[in-house]
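Q: Could you write out the predicted structure for this multi-component system? I'm mainly interested in how the pieces pack against one another.
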Amino acid sequence: MDLETRDLLDRRRRLMGPNVSTFYDDPVHIVRGQGVWLWDRAGTRYLDMYNNVAHVGHCHPAVVQAIATQAATLNTHTRYPHGLVLDLIENLAGRLSHGIGQAILTCTGSEANDVAIRMAQAATGKMGLIATDNTYHGNTSAVSQLNARRPPIGGPARHIRLVPAPDRLAPVGGSREGQALAFAAHIARAVADLEDNGSGFAGLILCPAFCNEGLTVLDPGFLAQAIAVVRRAGGLVIADEVQPGFGRLGSAFWGHDWIGIAPDIVTMGKPMGNGHPVACAMAKPDIMAAFRDVFPYFNTFGGNPVSAAAALAVLRVIDAEGLQENAARMGARLLKGLRSLRHPAIADARGIGLFLGLELVDAGGAPDGALAARVVNRMRATGVLAGVMGRANHIVKLRPPMVISEAEVDLALDRLAQALAAER
Amino acid sequence: MDLETRDLLDRRRRLMGPNVSTFYDDPVHIVRGQGVWLWDRAGTRYLDMYNNVAHVGHCHPAVVQAIATQAATLNTHTRYPHGLVLDLIENLAGRLSHGIGQAILTCTGSEANDVAIRMAQAATGKMGLIATDNTYHGNTSAVSQLNARRPPIGGPARHIRLVPAPDRLAPVGGSREGQALAFAAHIARAVADLEDNGSGFAGLILCPAFCNEGLTVLDPGFLAQAIAVVRRAGGLVIADEVQPGFGRLGSAFWGHDWIGIAPDIVTMGKPMGNGHPVACAMAKPDIMAAFRDVFPYFNTFGGNPVSAAAALAVLRVIDAEGLQENAARMGARLLKGLRSLRHPAIADARGIGLFLGLELVDAGGAPDGALAARVVNRMRATGVLAGVMGRANHIVKLRPPMVISEAEVDLALDRLAQALAAER
């Protein structure tokens, strides 16, 4: 670690407090980005195989220009009518089905999910929420109750039930069909619990690609029984598209279209502004009306003209540069490469578009988080930035900006193969 | 209302749903801003006497440049060490006393307050929170429970108690000293309630200038007894500086310094990035450590290099242009003007720096929200944008960008006098 990085880490501890995580044993002090590339202070270049926020590439000139131009023209809030936020919602609505056409703009995916769960509660008049037990939907007080990591202060919330997340290594229910039935049965039990304890059932929130669950790549149709249970119980379905949305999955623009479910509420965040803080919750008109009737919600920065300009620029770049198609092609190339890797620790190689995972286990077949950490640290040392995911952080996560090229995919595969080879 | 504005309002209803408020009977379709001036599509110019978010003036070139330059260079998140967010926290810490020197960066004041209440809960191990009954601290599920407007779905939260806000027209406790004692007594009762019902007492959250309460201009020292009650009960003090902070009060950079209290946690938002979504919660190291020990909080967009560059630029402009001093001078001029207005409906004219209010009552002395609405609509028609505040929205609110000049203050006063004169 160079002296300047060490100094930054000291200042972080002093100014940000303890337990503020960084990536890698030797954290990268990045100072510049362009496309899929990042540079540190010494001028060393890194291939970014991790950051989904810089969706259309770091510092995409069209997005930067949109932000700079609008910031120099006007930045107010939605209590003044302005066309840009309406153009944005119209554009998003045109990409959604199932009657979902109205939006509340926020600044973060956390805020969007915080609104979404209140939409479900307002529309049903019930409090109860169901999520999986290995997920992440955000960091507000209310939303973080859905994240299983630790019980919140004040004890676990009565109105929340977490069901076992689908898992590739330890499938509950055996076969794919058995897993789907088991998942639906857990939801039915959770609904019954919530009704018994007086909470009632408002809705199920999930990431349609189960990204935080370790990208459990399920067959389209997997959720049919689970959704049927939710519908019979009068609950709503919230699709958290913060990770799968905006074309990353290649074959579909949204995760819920990929897996074939019809949500009532859709939330989006991270990639939406290519790093500019913009996010939103979209819903059917009757659900929006129910929310608007109960909550006088206003978000000062949400949907401001600069955020709207940034998000519109991202959508235009995705279309103009064919990035959804690129995600399909480059994702397929990357997946083929992952599947051709040979190493005793590899339990599974999987992916949907440009979101991929390489699941690593020890000699006994147990998740090997230590090995995954060593692999990504080795990759970092050879100039490729990857991450980890899964219950034991044992799955190497590859989730690059959508503008990656064939040569860059091949470089990433080469470095990953090297890192694995060093671990024999 | 012109056809284009009508069309925008139709699109808003269709794309944003019902009950999305706009300002004024004839909403202003603003397309451009500079300093204290806003322009509509027809080229009509409006003096902005309302927007505190555009703190250093709409589209300040130094802030726009900082955003544009950093957005073109790098925009990542705080899991990579970067100097700008540390420079920002260091700068803010240098303006704070009482040992408050560590920060969590968020995107909105709501997120900052959502973090702050969890900091108080983590540090005390208790849940109970006290706020005033006519306040607003933000829009997340947890924070909106502090806003008295409507009881939340699921019923009022057990761990929240609201105490009567200080009020100028109907002072609880009579004299200023009586009011201070009454406020402290209400807090003592709320603490006892929270201890009785098992919540325990974590802290008191308040805006030190009681901005949302109608800018109840209190004597410095007013809160001494209330704070003593909080301390004796082992609770923490959260100063919500989203409105009073960043020099607006003229005589002090922060509201808590103006009124003379020593908070444990300080939150900031709106003006911090001049419209760019950046906010933060700052605390003493022991409180930050308690929070970080319990909550693995990470905010993807919070503290990103672009947000940090925007916030740093705002601080530099405040210093370089002497905007706190300007707030003191222009605020005094505006207050003198308000006090010289003669109209039977005026019950009070008050202000702290560049945050001022003109309280209007009917012939019977009751708050007259309808009159205040007519006055600001008349002002809008003559090119000056003001707002309303207070329990009955009966107080004309003047809270312009900090770069306002003498001539602009005088213009605002002239238009306000005209609007009042038309209401005799």
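A: Regarding packing and overall arrangement: Residues 323-402 of chain A form a domain with the Aspartate Aminotransferase, domain 1 fold (CATH 3.90.1150.10).
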